[in-house]
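Fill in residues.
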């Protein structure tokens, strides 16, 4: 889910110049997927370290 949500930020706001540097649609697509995947994995690791899933499970049980 994080990958789906984050790619819009990269596409429009954050790394626009880096992603569109080559002007080749295939390279743009691969670059966007790679950056989004790396950030999504990092977000999941941070959530795991912080215990986000345990916290959500606890809040749902209230």
């Amino acid at each position: 889910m994080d990958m789906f949500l984050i790619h819009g930020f990269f596409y429009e706001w954050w790394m626009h110049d880096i992603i569109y540097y080559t002007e080749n649609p295939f390279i743009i697509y691969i670059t966007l997927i790679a950056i989004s995947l790396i950030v999504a994995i990092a977000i999941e690791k941070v959530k795991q370290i912080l215990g986000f899933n345990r916290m959500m499970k606890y809040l749902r049980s209230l």
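The helical segments are 2-12, 16-19, 25-50, 52-61.
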